[in-house]
Amino acid sequence: MEGSEALISEAGVSMAPVEDLGAGRGPFWLDDWLRANATDVLAWRRHIHAHPELSRHEFATTELVVTLLRSVGLKPWVLPGGTGVVCDIGSGERCVALRADMDALPLTEATGLPYASTTEGAAHMCGHDAHTAILLGAARALAGAPELPGRVRLIFQPAEEVMPGGALDMIAAGALDGVERIYGLHVDPRLEVGSVGMRVGALTSAADLIELRLTSPGGHTSRPHLTADLVHALGTVITSLPAVLSRRVDPRSGTVLVWGAVHAGQAANAVPQDGVLRGTLRTADHEVWTALEPLVAASVESLLAPTGVGFHLDYRRGVPPVVSDPESTALMRAGTEAALGEGAVAATEQSSGGEDFGWYLEHVQGAFARLGVWPGPPAPQSDIHRPTFVLDERALLCGVRTLVHTALTTLA
Known about the structure:
Helices cover 32% and strands 23% of the residues.
């Protein structure tokens, strides 16, 4: 399994080594390992990219990870569900964790790459293939270190793309037992390769799902006074609930409700008997997040009371915001600068997107950062979650160095 081409496809994909932007920064064993194995890191990423697996079905990816870890003498264990891997490197009571997610998105790839997805309806358009390859590279480099100042725990997580997220499975299985801090990276096509974006505080938002089902006796549109006008009630909630929340929640929290789907009726002259409204509610404030569900329930009830329409609210809590603490962020900054240089750390904005890494930070301190994967001008920026998303593979080696140095800096 160690040959590059064997890990891509039966036919193999030829490729040249990419530039290692952190070369020469040490430690010597990391430089030596990357010099000898950089193309393998690329090959692992390309193989995973070509063979994507959806959430909770990452069986082949899990097997690949286990095989590559065992081949250097490590002892990984797999979660009871058959996807997800945990493995320790080193010894001692102190333990720092590094996490990567492994699942793909239910999208059809349109990049035209020679190693594009071979699985219909699944593609790594969020960079989880890169995350997995980066952590594999960091693992095998750390496994070859002469000595480590403590333990490094590898967490290869399934099901990040589904709420409430596979992080909960990892935590329930004991992946955080004995861990003092945890770190993670996510590719960012808005940052140039060689840079890592980080910030203290909220980096991503909590993301909840709302599904509201309405019911009415139905009737003729010429006699709306004899029934409950379900479509009018839907419109009331669509326009009024976001407005109500904007007056009941601190605007500094970055709370936003956006509807994504609405369905009701078929005939133009018939009041429908049922309808459904779906949307997402996001906030960067953890305290606000805990108060949103009862606030939404009370607001919906008040808005619909005059309409006579019945309703059932299904409020699904998603993931908490990712909030990096100051000390962990400082350690990750120091590790990144040691890995890539003093100018490597970039400022980054808080996002309304959700990320289940936040569940880990409910239990231990840690930091999450954005890894630049944009080649820079004049190359266009292709956003994640699009069928055309591509990344600069030099970022893989930057990611390996960043994780290794962050772990070493934390354990020092």
